[in-house]
Each structure stands twice: as C-alpha cells, then as structure tokens.
C-alpha cells in the first residue's frame, strides 16, 4: 500500500500560506462620514452594494447599509464594527464559515484597519471550492487507509453488499483495460467506504457518530457537496448554514481518522 502523505495538517498549512481570507475578500469602498447620505445611497444602488465603509478623520471606523441611509450626512446612522465581524487578512478560510453563520458580511483588516469585505457569496469563489474539494478528497483517502489497515488484502470484500462489490470490480476491470495501475480497493466509491466504516465496530466507534443514521446523513451530505463542487454548481443554495456545520464535522472526522491511523513503522494498530 502506498503511504498516504497528505493530512488535514498538510492542507491547512498549504492554504494558510497561500489562500487566506484576503484571497476571497473584496475591497471595502468607503466614504467620509460627512458625505451626503443621498449620494452614497445612489452610488450603492448603482453598484449593487449593500454595505460601504465610513471614514472619520481619514480612518474607516464603521459602515452603513442601504437601509440605514436617508437624508443628511451618511455618518448619522453609522454602525460601529463589532469585534466578531472583524477578521484579519491572514485568517484561514474556516474562520469565514464560522463567522458567517449568523452574519451576512465580515470585514477584513488590511494593514491594521478595515479594508476588505466578505459576504456569503464570496464562499462560492474558486479558492473556497478548492479548499472544500481538498477536504472531501482527504476524507476519501483517510477512509481508504483505515479500511485497508483494518482489513488487509481482500478482507474488506465480505463486508460490502454483493451488488456494490460487483460494481467495484467492473470499475477495476475498466481501469485495467486502460492500463491504469490500481488496486480493487482504489475503485471503492465514497458511499462504499462509508458502508465499510459503519459495518466495522472499531472504525465506527472511532468516527464519533452518535448513530448509524447520523453517519448515513453525513456521508450523503458530503457526497452531495462533492458533486456540486465537481460540476461547478451552487454550493450555498439550500445549504446555509448547514454547510458550515458540515465542514466543521468533516474536519472533526478527518482528525479522528488521522489519530486512529498510526505510522505503519510502529507496532501498534487500532
């Protein structure tokens, strides 16, 4: 078995160094707080902005929404930044998922002051989709590893329904026909790996699921997310804030599986 070199830690380090909140943030357009509210509102409607920043003494100290602006100065109904909606440009993407559960936007501090904005729509951008696809791919890789460790060789085959085993063998034969190097277990689908995990008492206990129904629901949601990512479909519609919860649970399962997979060079097993 080829050794798995990727882990959740590897993915986090990769994205922490290259893809942060600044990557998906949009510039926060701002006006002086003394600017006429009518002009700011007209600008926002033309640009289809919901939020703009407001400056006092040349520093962005708050913001307004289109619902805030009426007449007079734009700063008459300024909203001060709440600590929970201010994040650093170098914070990881997961921070945005967690913070946007109950908010429609976040502000990103650039060079010490609010200079960027992230909305839920920004979670559709390519960097976020790559990160999510990476998480799903890691999950499949870790599932395959623990299954192989628990059931070496063909030991897993009796635990898979006959129809699914037959389908896996068809995929294997097709890959062999194309001269692709692979093992029969490499042809298992996500749902198959989930089935093997749930049928193995040790693996199921490690996974931390409250019940098999909860596990089935989780893997179904992960499969739906993977398909949406693969086909460039909307990943938020009908999935928010459930998507944020799913990502948290996905990372938790990855951590559990990684801890349950000791280095093959060591003697201990599950």
What is this entry, summarized?
The protein contains 10 helices and 8 strands. The chain is of the alpha/beta class.
Protein model, in words:
The structure is a single chain. This protein is of the alpha/beta class. The protein folds into 2 domains: 8-123, CBS-domain, CATH 3.10.580; 126-259, no CATH class. The chain contains 10 helices and 8 strands. The strands form 2 sheets. A 4-stranded mixed β-sheet has the order 1-8-7-6. A 4-stranded mixed β-sheet has the order 2-3-4-5, with no helix packed on it. Helix 5 packs across helix 7 (190-199) and helix 5 runs parallel beside helix 10. The two termini are 17 Å apart.
Notable characteristics:
single chain; 270 residues; alpha/beta; CBS-domain; four-stranded mixed β-sheet; 8 strands; 13% strand; disordered C terminus
What is the overall number of helices? 10
Query: Can you give the helix content as a percent range?
Result: 40-55%
- Counting helices, strands and paired strands, the structural category is alpha/beta
Unreliable runs: 262-268
Strand order of the largest sheet: 1-8-7-6
What is the element layout, followed by pairings?
Elements (H helix, E strand, L loop, with lengths): L7 H11 L2 H4 L1 E2 L2 E3 L4 H11 L3 E6 L2 E7 L13 E2 L5 E3 L4 H7 L5 E6 L2 E7 L6 H25 L11 H16 L12 H10 L1 H7 L4 H19 L11 H18 L11
Parallel strand pairs: 2-3, 6-7
Antiparallel strand pairs: 1-8, 3-4, 4-5, 7-8
């Amino acid at each position: 078995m080829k050794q798995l070199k990727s882990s959740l830690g590897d993915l986090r380090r990769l994205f922490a160094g290259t893809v942060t909140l600044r990557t998906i943030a949009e510039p926060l357009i701002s006006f002086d707080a003394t600017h006429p509210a009518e002009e700011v509102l007209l600008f926002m409607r033309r640009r289809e902005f919901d939020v703009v920043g407001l400056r006092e003494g040349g520093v962005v100290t708050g913001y307004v929404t289109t619902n805030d602006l009426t007449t007079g100065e734009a700063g008459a109904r300024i909203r001060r930044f709440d600590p929970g909606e201010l994040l650093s440009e170098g914070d990881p993407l997961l921070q945005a998922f967690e913070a946007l559960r109950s908010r429609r936007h976040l502000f990103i501090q650039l060079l010490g002051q609010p200079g960027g904005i992230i909305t839920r729509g920004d979670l559709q951008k390519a960097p976020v989709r790559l990160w999510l696809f990476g998480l799903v791919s890691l999950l499949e890789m870790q599932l395959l590893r623990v299954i192989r460790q628990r059931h070496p060789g063909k030991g897993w085959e009796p635990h898979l329904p006959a129809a699914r085993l037959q389908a896996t063998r068809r995929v294997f034969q097709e890959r062999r026909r194309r001269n692709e190097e692979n093992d029969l277990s490499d042809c298992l689908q996500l749902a198959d790996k989930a089935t093997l995990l749930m049928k193995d008492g040790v693996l199921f206990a490690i996974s931390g699921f409250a019940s098999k129904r909860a596990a089935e629901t989780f893997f179904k949601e992960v499969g739906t997310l993977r398909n949406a990512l693969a086909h460039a479909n909307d990943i938020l519609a009908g999935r928010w804030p459930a998507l944020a919860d799913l990502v948290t649970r996905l990372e938790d399962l990855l951590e559990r599986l990684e801890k349950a997979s000791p280095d093959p060079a060591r003697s201990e097993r599950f």
